[in-house]
Specification:
The protein contains no helices and eight strands. It is mostly beta strands and 102 residues long.
Length: 102
Amino acid sequence: MLVRVDVPVAREETQTHMARFASVPPDGKQVVFESFGRLWLKNVADGAARRLTREEAPAFELFPSWSRDGKRIVFVRWTDAGLGEVHVVNGGGGASRAISKQ
């Protein structure tokens, strides 16, 4: 007789306490950071973090940095197939666009 026991391996959601590569715009009101290979945007005063980009393709988003006027965020997007590309996205988030080939 075979006995099978379901063992949960990973939860649907998880919390992290490790925010990396944090960057604050000139006005100091928000912070962008990387966690789990994705970029997140959060108001400094309050609120929950939300995804910065809309991309669902398997890629790492790393090293965010705000523009001097605080309107855009530049970051590195990495895939094994395409290697690294520099991307830019509006400061409020959304779809990013590549500004380099590698």
